[in-house]
What does this fold into?
Amino acid sequence: MSPFLLTRTLPADATDAALRADVLSGLTAQPKTLPPKWFYDAHGSDLFEEITRLDEYYPTRAEREILIARAGEIAAASGAKTLIELGSGSSEKTRHLLDALPELHTYVPVDVSESALKGASEALLAERDGLSVHALVADFTHVLELPDSPGPRLVVFLGGTLGNLLPDERAAFLKSVRARLAPGDGLLLGTDLVKDEATLVTAYDDAAGVTAAFNKNVLTVVNRELGADFPAGEFDHVALWDPDNEWIEMRLRARRALTVKIRELDLVVQFEEGEELRTEVSAKFREEKVRQELATAGLRLDQWWTDAAGRFALSLATAD
Ligand SMILES: C[S@@+](CC[C@H](N)C(=O)[O-])C[C@H]1O[C@@H](n2cnc3c(N)ncnc32)[C@H](O)[C@@H]1O
It folds into this structure.
């Protein structure tokens, strides 16, 4: 039996406290916002997996194509004994890397979604004898207490999740990753690329409405956890391209004027008809921007690979 540990790095009520703080500051701000990490309860994680299988959602297929083509090179360049994956979700694509790293000692998936971590870890342990899996239920934007495990370490951040952080959050996040890397350690980063607006918007507004359900799930989470009464059916899913910031925004637009009570916060929030709540940004990148942001954090871009259609990129970086 392979060793398995699941650590909650946060005290039991920390998630609740963080949700309260985010909901209070986001819903009293103008325009209203909520951070995307609150999509991912068990149902939200399942909906995200469904999104990855949609025809319109090309990023997962494009990133998998690169991983399959480059796993050997990544493994040879990193020689990783420990693989730390931030926002690991189902760890489904990561299997291509794990297969290429027979010497790997420890896999550390990190995610806010405990259900996703458990599902992924159980599946991996059933398949891979001898691999030690130490799952962390943690927020990767906070200081991470990583387990003691042998180097070299490769930090993996896939799915374009970096793009969900705003520019100042991205800079702080990349610096904190850099601070955890020793000489010889690396970062493997997946970033979605700037492309035509129609392809981008369609990827976030599929015909079957799965992304709309995922978007509205954040309201269900706030209703359940904080005793709110958001009528999810009274909001429309909106995905739009912001060409100045080069990011997609997902929003929820109130169909009519609404008054929402959030019991646990003793808060009443008014929405005007047509008012929008921003629930996610998903920044799209160009090679130069990735190189620059990595350099600012003290990371050197060594390899830049894209899928054949040039839709998505994987970068391999090392500490300077
Ligand atoms: C866009 S999905 C990507 C999942 C997977 N890496 C992939 O490529 O398919 C983002 C993942 O990051 C997790 N996540 C989002 N914000 C997080 C945070 N602040 N800390 C830890 N995990 C987070 C979500 O639960 C989800 O599993």
Q: What stands out?
A: The chain has a mean pLDDT of 94. Residues 58-78 form the longest helix (21 residues). The pocket of S-adenosylmethionine is lined by residues 37, 40, 45, 48, 52, 60, 87-89, 93, 111-113, 116, 139-141, 158-159, 161 (CB under 6 Å).
